[in-house]
Predict the 3D structure of the following.
Amino acid sequence: MTTDQHGPSEVYDLEAVRRAREAATEVPEDPEHATDTDDVDQDAPMTVDGQVLAVVDERPKSAQRAAAPRREILPGWAKDRESAKAAAKWAVDYYGHATTYHGVRLPTYYAKLAGRAPLGLGRVIAATYGWIFDTSDRETRAQVFGTVNDASAYLRLRQDRRTQVRARLFLTLLVLLVLAGLSAYVVYGVDSLMVQLGLGLTALAGLGLLGRNPDKPITGRAVDASKEPRLTSELIVNALGSLGLARLNQAISKDGSKAIAFVSPIMRDGAGFRAEIDLPAGVTATEVIEQRERLASGLRRGLGKVWPETDPEVHSGRLVLYVADKSLAQSKPAPWPLAKTGKANVFEPVPIGVDQRGRPVTLTLMFASGLIGAIPRMGKTFTLRLLTLAAALDPRVELHVYNLKGGSDFIPLEPVAHAIRSGDDPEDVEYLVRDLRAAQIEMRRRYKLLKTLPREVCPESKVTDALASDKRYGLHPLLYVFDECQFMFEHDIYGAEIIELVTDLVKRGPAVGLMVWVATQRPDAKSIPTGVSANAVLRICLKVTGQMENDMVLGTSMYKAGIRATRFGRKDLGIAYLVGEGDDPVIVRSSFVDAPAAEAIAARARAARLAGGWLSGMAAGEELPDDDTGSILDHLLAVWPEHDPEWSNGKVWCDELAQRLATSQPSLYEGWTGEQVTAAVKPHGLRTVQVKKMIDGGQVNKRGLSRRDLTDTLGHTEIGGPDEP
């Protein structure tokens, strides 16, 4: 036998033992590499080899919490009237349908329950028997009895079981007596037959519930959920994992579902469900958006119901996934808020429709020109007419509407349009050209006027809301609308001049209140000149058939960025991408306004113009003069006699010709220079030549035109000007 080496009564000092252990594990300090930890700033940036690894936030915790982004008290749908209405409508429709569906089937459900009542009664009897005689522990008792060797212990166990069975049997009989008494009271003591029948049916239904078969449910499904599984976090994670994104798959395989964080629970938002998701590090929301079609497949929903978006204000990895109940094509177009009441202001956003989440989409017409493209019969003309109606509800806007395909789509605007034409007949095109020439002259007048206005009246050298409302300056907004613009841009006589004029208006017009909108069903380089498409700020693209058409309307590389109007189907009428109004392209379904509604809106607009004194042009009974149908070539020939004593060689400087044009037709050519004459005749194929003239004994050489070239060009084009004398 051995004794304890410390002795039987020795007491350990635990603190001393711990100190000794810690001292033994300390590494001796190297004087050459020693650091004074007391002098180290614990809040300083962590660095390695001079590279900053992390910067410590030195602000107090209270300041950090105050600067942290705060969650909204109410969800977005609750603060937006339209979204709240959509959510309430969905709840009423869904639960109302479910209630009605099951309500009309209550007799069938009860019949099924009654049919299963005998099975339920049998299950009650079987369960009661098993509880009284403890049948579930039969095997356990047999094992226990088999291992007991003591006769007295065996007899004691047997007695205990008999006592338990007698007690449970007595309790069961007592319950049966109570139930029998209650039944007798209901049958003989209750006078109301309805109460007796109700209690009996309730008891029968209870037995039916106990007799249910899990494989054969009593009730049916009010909503067929087999086609679209319920939107859950697990379904979304699986769908994201099916996109084939390498970084995303690596994160999921490493961390599982924890690799994708749900910022907030999946919630109801308008006419669908919304989920905010933080993707793994290195994965951007744009990558997911580009795989929208695969994402829709993973979610087991149609492409028109799945709309992933990014939230760049948070970070590039924040994905906002919206899953709509119905695709835009299946839902009804949202009513236009200005259809029955209200006015518009082109300096402020005007509503044009809703996005895929039912949120209003607005567009600001002022200071921008626009472009609309689509294949035929997709709603291009209706969208353009909607924008024109919005401008008509601003009494100050002067409308110039040209429907070059013909037809009656824009006829409702006749009561308010300053100039309106339908068709591409020669007289229509000539009228359009004269209107464009007048617009260019008006644009120059406005720029000259703005230079003379005091800084307090015109602070930024552009038309303001206040200036547009002041009739003294004549700076009210002008809107030029051209539907099927390819007919005017490709015109064999005036096409080149129209391209030059429209391009000039698109480039310089917005600052002085001139807005130009063109629409075409054939988006290509000829239908939309580069000068027009490159300077169009607002772009609306409905369904197109190819990448080239998509980028021609929406902008270069939009197709590669995943903004593809080619994905719209033939059923997606009025659905388009809108680019230029905000930082990111948006999907919009324009509000539908038919011809009768357009006429009613135009009548309201006319009344407002009459009240404010803004009605003008054709709407007021005026007409653009039709006596002059010639081009600049005709006008040059009219001021250029065959035998000019000052220019005997038949050649005249362009500066001289500009002065003659301004004197002859000041409404068209006032303020023109020789360079403008050169640019105006160039589209007609007329080239300048060098013209020499003696001035004060010296020879001066400038660019000019040859009269012979002019007459040859006129004879070749045959546009109705005077013949060579």
Summary: Residues 350-620 form a domain with the Rossmann fold fold (CATH 3.40.50.300). The chain has four domains: 94-210, 233-324, 350-620, 632-717. Residues 1-12, 24-43, 46-54, 716-725 have pLDDT under 50 and may be disordered. The longest helix spans residues 151-189.
